[in-house]
Amino acid sequence: MRKILTATAIAAFLTGGAFLATGTASAATTLAGTCSGAVNGSMGDTVAIQGSSVKELVRKGAQDYVNSHLWTALSVWPNSLADTIAAKGALPVGQVPNAAGGTIAGSAIGGVVATALKGANGLGVLDSTKNEVLSSISAHVAQGCGLTTVATNYVAPGQQGTGGTGTAPGGTANVPGGTSGNLSNLNPGTAGGTGGSAPMRDYSGIPTATAGTAVAPGVRYPANGTLPGDASAPQAGQGDQSGQSAGIRDAGNAQSLASNSASNDVQLPMLLAVIVLAGVTAGLVRTWVLRRAS
Questions:
Q1: What three-state secondary structure class fits 187?
Q2: Which of 13, 58, 84, 169 is buried most, with the most CB atoms less than 10 Å from its CB?
Q3: Over the stretch 1-56, which tens digit does the pLDDT of each residue have?
């Protein structure tokens, strides 16, 4: 009997272990085509990239370190490190979250690549050199990579409670919780503690124009008055100003400063200018004649 119980317990243990192993292995892995852009997968899936997608970034990171530390050119091999990361195959870099989407930062991808290259040939001789080369590679990968995850099986949570369709103003409507009442009595946040409907706005106090009630011009203006723009009405600067005060009557008046003589009269300044010009001309002619005669 004891042997039977022992065998049964062992069988149960093995069966349970196999079941747990099957459940763990059910998680899928979504392989991204590149180390940047968007990747689609189910929530909880592991996101991985191919080592070949970061091959050139690794090569550039190692080569930049060599260019700035020429004495390491014999011990740091950028091409060898690039081939090593390409041979690693799929590199898990993150997971699709339990949400509509998420991100996998480039720094996380750079850390995974640096971890995968630890102990590889071509990192240098000194431990300090190896760490610096890995840091340079990680920085270049972080700068050139970054993924956006999209959960294809995400379903937005539905609104809780059952709600009906409201009726016309003054009627009744179903509200969350199964209650009903007049829409005019509903205020935001008072329907069962989960929110409510705001009453319709009242626009009855806004004045509006009604057809057929236009006011005639004779009513809008006095019987003894004048309409705007009437030519018979006195205009500014015209008409009799005798009833105005001296300050108002003289405001804006201008007087001509020219004389009242005819426009074709020769004025004294012009006559003097002609006489002076004639005298100067005569002097010049006399001087010229005397010089020719001599």
A1: coil
A2: 58
A3: 445 444 444 444 444 443 333 333 346 999 998 999 999 999 999 999 999 999 99
**Secondary element (H or E) of residue 83:** helix 78-86
User: Cα 170–171–174 angle (5° rounding)?
Assistant: 130
Q: What is the pTM of this model?
A: 0.48
* Contact by Cβ (8 Å): 82, 58: yes
Dihedral angle computed from the Cα positions of residues 57, 63, 64 and 70, in that order, rounded to the nearest 10 degrees: 170
CA distance 78 to 62: 5
Q: Strand ranges (DSSP E) for the chain?
A: 29-32, 36-41, 46-50, 90-95, 101-104, 146-151, 172-174, 180-182
> H/E/C letters for each residue in 43-77?
CCCEEEEEHHHHHHHHHHHHHHHHHHCHHHCCCEC
